[in-house]
Design a protein that fits this description.
This protein is of the alpha+beta class. Helix content is 26%, strand content 16%. It folds into 2 domains: 59-172, 2-Layer Sandwich (Phosphorylase Kinase, domain 1), CATH 3.30.200; 173-251 and 297-428, Transferase(Phosphotransferase) domain 1 (Transferase(Phosphotransferase), domain 1, Orthogonal Bundle). Strands 3-4-5-7-6 form a 5-stranded antiparallel sheet. Residues 1-10 have a biased composition (Basic and acidic residues). InterPro entries: Kinase-like_dom_sf, Prot_kinase_dom, Ser/Thr_kinase_AS.
Length: 456
């Protein structure tokens, strides 16, 4: 994914996400002439058919069906000529994103025009990136997109090259981002239950990324997009860090003794069941029936990953990054705390008049909340969770050791079934109210949004 460029104080073109209500979003009404400067020299390098073995996350993925229909019977994959660009919807220092559709609208409900078969095509000028020495960022994003297969993360539908341009075709979200959506809420903040829903889905997405060894490093409302069904999708992975993670099943501190009866192989009583058990054991000697204790935790956290890169967005970076030290997986849990704080209270806790003062506050200023006392028990739980996530010491920060396994069990999420979170009705469903909308919220430089940076 890509964000529209904003210029940071250091002169480096940074990445930003579109604000649907901002007059600064210059990408929302441009015609196809806006991309006429792009010249693709043929022949193009097509994507290979094996690159199109996508695993769609929804049974009614019309965009995926259209891609499959377009490539049916072909010996080669898609190319730039298979798409028609509708308008530019984002640009930044590592490329440009266009809203596009298949030229013949293959397989999309008879070619009816709607957002279900719209795509986001990111076009990267490799020669420009080489001059900027940021080729690694584009390569990292492409590498990560190929790894992802999750309902709250982007689907990569196709990739190909044309001349010195590299193109990737991704999932398109018509619902905007949580930054712009927050500004449309009363008092520009979400209700506690809405914030809990979005935080839970982001938590599930982070859990999957960490399971793959990916540290996101740029979580903020601008990078959390909203699909037409109201569920979220994380975007922008060019600042992410890939490491090695080993998923494991861990016992909690209160686990009973491994030799206790609840952890031993279950033996059926004597009689018919016992004879059946012996027969089964002879036929399938390697199979064992065991009880699974309820206090087992799935832990897949890249705790050994370390980086010294100064990356992120000023208001969301962790103290270890702000102070110039090395960092690891704990930075994502810090940013989740900032993310929740902003959704609930309408702003970030350490923001100041300048980036330098913001970074100083992150390192030294204690965490405070807008009011002295919480208004409800749920807000009290929210504050406790945020305080745990915003612990300035990354070694004892909530989530730093066991990741999502620690965060999910917090009382703030009590009663929420994470395994069935996709079945929960979202607080707002853009597909109902914005069905005719054609403006992309992928990326723009809306007023008041946060600026990502990367100093290597």
């Amino acid at each position: 994914m890509l964000n529209c460029g904003r210029r940071d104080s250091d002169g480096d073109t940074s990445l930003e996400t579109a604000n649907s209500g901002s007059s600064h979003s210059s990408m929302s009404s441009e015609s196809c002439s806006s991309f006429s400067r792009i010249s693709f020299d043929l022949p193009t390098c097509r994507s290979s058919p094996e690159n199109l073995t996508i695993k769609p996350h929804r049974s009614s993925d019309f965009a995926y069906s259209a891609i499959r229909s377009a490539t049916f019977g072909r010996k080669s994959g898609l190319s730039f000529r298979d798409f028609r660009l509708l308008r530019r919807i984002g640009s930044g220092d590592i490329g440009t994103v266009y809203l596009c559709r298949l030229s013949n609208d293959h397989g999309c409900d008879g070619g009816r025009v709607d957002d279900r078969c719209s795509y986001a095509m990111k076009v990267v000028d490799k020669e420009v990136l080489a001059v900027k020495k940021k080729v690694h960022r584009a390569e990292m994003e492409r590498k990560i997109l190929k790894m992802l297969d999750h309902p709250f993360l982007p689907t990569l539908y196709a990739e190909f090259e044309a001349s010195h341009f590299s193109c990737i075709v991704m999932e398109y979200c018509c619902g905007g981002d949580l930054h712009s959506l927050r500004h449309r809420q009363p008092r520009k903040r979400f209700s506690l239950y809405s914030a809990r829903f979005y935080a839970a889905e982001v938590l599930v997405a982070l859990e999957y990324l960490h399971m793959l060894g990916i540290i996101y490093r740029d979580l903020k409302p601008e990078n959390v997009l909203v699909r037409s069904d109201g569920h979220i999708m994380l975007s922008d992975f060019d600042l992410s860090l890939c490491s090695d993670a080993i998923p494991a099943v861990e016992s909690s501190a209160s686990s009973p003794d491994p030799a206790s009866p609840s952890n031993l192989t279950y033996n059926r009583p004597h009689g018919t069941a016992s004879r059946f058990s012996r027969l089964r054991n002879r036929l399938f000697p390697s199979k064992k029936v065991q009880n699974v204790t309820p206090n087992r935790l799935f832990v897949a956290e890249p705790v050994a990953a370390k980086s010294s890169s100064f990356v992120g967005t000023h208001e969301y970076v962790s103290p270890e990054v702000a102070s110039g030290g090395s960092h690891g997986n704990a930075v994502d849990w810090w940013s989740l705390g900032i993310f929740m704080y902003e959704l609930i209270y309408g702003g970030t806790p350490f923001a100041a008049a300048s980036n330098e003062m913001t970074l100083r506050n992150i390192v030294k200023k204690p965490l405070t909340f807008p009011t002295h006392a919480p208004s409800s028990a749920l807000e009290s739980h929210a504050r406790d969770l945020i305080s745990g996530l915003l612990n300035k010491d990354p070694n004892i920060r909530l989530g730093s050791k066991r990741g999502s396994a620690e965060v999910k069990t917090h009382p703030f999420f009590k009663g929420l079934n994470f395994a069935l979170i996709r079945m929960v009705t979202p607080p707002e469903i853009p597909g109902l109210s914005l069905k005719k909308q054609t403006t992309s919220f992928y990326h723009g430089n809306g007023k008041g949004q946060s600026t990502a940076f990367d100093y290597f």
